[in-house]
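pasting for ref
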Amino acid sequence: MASEKCQPFRELLPCYPLEALDPDETRAVQKHLRECVDCRAALEEYRAVSDGLLFAMPCQEPPPRVRARLIASLAREKPEGAAASRTRPILQWVMGLALVVLLVLNGATLVQLNALQRQQAHLAQELETSQKALSLVTYPDSRTYALSGQAAGTLVLNAELKYGALFVWGLESLDAAHTYQIWLIQPDGKRVSGGLFKPEPGQAFAYAVLSSPRPFSDFTGLGVTVEPSGGSPGPTTPRVFGTTF
């Protein structure tokens, strides 16, 4: 039977093989075991079952002071855990905000890229139109016709190339919902669309290149009207200006 001297250590022996004692208690148990044969024998019994202790039998109730130290240790660590718990949502929020900012920047970059591509396509089209107009003016067989009406200008036609160039001054600016439409007039009075054009904002001068699937000799004249953006199958407003061939 354990003596009264062994009694405090017998309370600690179940926790010793599980390394559940604090350093001071561990040193005290180790010193006592060197002097007490009975406690060493009891310790061997605890060690024999330590591997299955948590599953094979109810947990040994630790001494009150061990329980108190464990609770105190957990209490000291709790603020750090709480701080980590508070920090985690903040970090997630910051990462989410960074992702949103990145998406917005990518979207803005894509919008700017699309705008630049549209501008590049518009400039390329303008360059092609100006080159065609210049070539028609300098072509030897081209003929010129003066325009009459609400604007002044010149029409240059080339019957061989089936192309024409229209140069106009004094045109009114149009909103985005309207455009100028060119009409080629047949001998029977019917109109065939020759294309759309619009002056650049703030500029009273405009030029346009028109093409015809048929020789210009099949037509008697040309007229221009204001039509909805995208054009119309036939004139819907009075003629702004025109000429006869």
